[in-house]
Amino acid sequence: MKLEGPVLAVRDLQASLVFYQTVLGLEIIRGFGDSVELEGGLSLQTLDSWAGSLGRAPQDIRFDGGDSELYFVTEDFDQFLRTLGDMPEAGLVHPPLEHRWGQRTARLYDPDGHILEIAESLSKVCKRFRDSGLDEAGIARRMDVPVEFVRRQLRRA
Fold first, then answer.
1. Is residue 66 within 8 Å of 8, Cβ to Cβ?
2. Counting Cβ atoms within 10 Å, is residue 130 exposed (0-12), middle (13-18) or buried (19+)?
3. Residue 70 bridge partners (DSSP)
4. What is the dihedral of CA 139, 140, 145, 146, to 10 degrees?
5. What is the Cα–Cα distance from 24 to 92, expressed in whole angstroms?
6. Regarding predicted confidence, which is higher, 157 or 48?
7. How far is CA 141 from CA 24, 74, 145, 153, 157, in A?
8. Where are the beta strands (DSSP E) in 43-138?
């Protein structure tokens, strides 16, 4: 697995972007609507989107816990799930799921209660869709990404 970078829930995405750009000099790498990736791997996600991904209401999020996670990517998500199944003591935040763009993820707590997200690599998502019969344009539509993004991911798969 490879650590991709921290994700922070923010109450006001625009105000947070101004802060990170102005104060820290971090530039936007790419935006995904309700989340933005900055240089260095830091991602910011709106409170509403963050809360929804956990199945909670925004007012249930406390900024002293449950507001961030460490995000890991694995090339073999199925193997990770088998390993996780052998560890009943691992506390799941929610069962493994597939996001609207097709990426499969699982969230769990570390021993100290920090949230860890383990996700299928996007190159594997693209390959899985290609193996199911979708062409590059179909994968791009399914994932809501540019075709060139799909091509790059398939070269890595």
1. no
2. middle
3. 6, 116
4. 140
5. 34
6. 48
7. 35, 24, 7, 15, 19
8. 43-46, 68-74, 92-98, 104-109, 115-120
What CA–CA distance (Å, rounded) separates 102 from 70? 20
Amino acid at position 136, single letter: E
Amino acid at 138: G
Return the ∠ at Cα 116 (arms to 77 and 53), rounded to 5°: 85
Q: What share of the chain is helix, strand, coil (3-state, %, to 5)?
A: 40, 30, 30
Please provide residue 15's backbone torsions phi and psi, each rounded to the nearest 5 degrees.
-65, -40
Q: Is pTM beyond 0.70 here?
A: no
pLDDT digits (tens, 9 = 90+) for 104-153: 999 988 766 778 898 999 999 999 999 999 999 999 999 999 999 999 99
Q: Which residue has the tokens 């290609």?
A: 130
For residue 154, CA distances in Å to 71, 108, 124, 129 come to 22, 29, 8, 10
